[in-house]
Design a protein that fits this description.
Pathway: Cofactor biosynthesis; (R)-pantothenate biosynthesis; (R)-pantoate from 3-methyl-2-oxobutanoate: step 1/2. One of its GO terms (cellular component) is cytoplasm. It is found in: Cytoplasm. The protein starts with 12 loop residues before the first helix and ends in an 11-residue tail after the last helix. The chain has an 8-stranded parallel β-barrel, surrounded by 7 helices. By secondary structure, it is of the alpha/beta class. The chain has 11 helices and 8 strands. The chain binds 3-methyl-2-oxobutanoic acid.
Length: 272
């Protein structure tokens, strides 16, 4: 899986729109450090998201709220060093864009300048339109995020499926159209009915990437730790686990402990 830098044509915001037009589904996965990002990029994932889910899976917080802008920049700059092909998108964390558009722009600029990322993602629709416009006006590509927006978890009160009721579904559709109109290059739809997600994807020219939003959208995103079975306690219906790394890594580490205790490691060939 080694990569020669030159063989790769970089994924850009433009190539994602082309993929939608050609009917090629977009793959997106999170990564939070250099080694993870190298593996994900070499596996030809189109978009790497440095998600604020780092707050959960890397730092052990219950929600995405505590992670800071400095911590996101640290994760993003580590990821960037491992990537040759994918488009790298970074979440602007809670508290770094909600108070006013100038703050939003300052946060986006810090992410782009200090990490070398290619785009930012923000949660919300019409409520944050001025922030989105200001960031876009500065030439920074923006990915939207609607549906279940984990930074608002205390407003929702639960992580259940969003937009099942007519009124919320209508607002979501309006927000999606607005995000496209302002110039967002793509939108993530999280945990909403598949029928609604398909309708939104069909009404837009920009790609819609789903997580728990069915198969009628233009691409899928998952969290690295969930796909590989490192997280055990998170079992939503939408999640397909491709490995059980929690168990496999645990077995390997137990074997190492046993080998040390048995004085089997290191053996004659494993020393100088
Ligand atoms: O932070 C994250 O990982 C995300 C994805 C779940 C879309 O926003």
């Amino acid at each position: 899986m080694s990569i020669a830098k030159k063989e790769y044509k970089r994924v850009t915001v433009k190539s994602l729109v082309d993929m939608k037009q050609l009917g090629e589904k977009i793959s997106m996965l999170t990564a939070y450090d250099y080694s993870m990002a190298k593996i994900v990029d070499a596996a030809n994932v189109d978009v790497i998201l440095v998600g604020d889910s780092a707050s959960n899976v890397m730092a052990g917080h219950e929600t995405t709220l505590p992670i800071t802008l400095d911590q996101m920049i640290y994760h993003a700059s580590s990821v960037i060093r491992g990537v040759y092909r994918a488009l790298v998108v970074v979440d602007i964390p809670f508290g770094s864009y909600q108070s006013d558009p100038k703050e939003a722009l300052r946060s986006a600029i810090r992410i782009m300048k200090e990490s070398g990322a290619h785009a930012v993602k923000l949660e919300g629709g019409v409520e944050i339109k001025e922030s989105i416009k200001r960031i876009l006006n500065a030439g920074i590509p923006v990915m939207g995020h609607l549906g279940l927006t984990p930074q608002s978890i205390y407003k929702f009160g639960t992580y259940t499926v969003r937009a099942k009721e007519e009124e919320e579904a209508r607002k979501l559709k309006q927000d999606a159209l607005l995000l496209e109109k302002y110039g967002c290059f793509a939108i993530v739809l999280e945990k909403i009915p598949a029928k609604l997600a398909k309708e939104v994807a069909e009404s837009l020219t920009i790609p819609v990437i789903g997580i728990g939003a069915g198969n009628g959208v233009d691409g899928q995103v998952l969290v690295f730790h969930d796909l590989l079975g490192i997280t055990q306690e998170f079992n939503p219906r939408f999640l397909r686990r491709y490995m059980n790394l929690y168990e496999d890594m645990g077995k390997a580490i137990s074997q190492y402990v046993q080998d040390v205790k048995d004085k089997d490691f290191p053996n004659d060939e494993e020393q100088y």
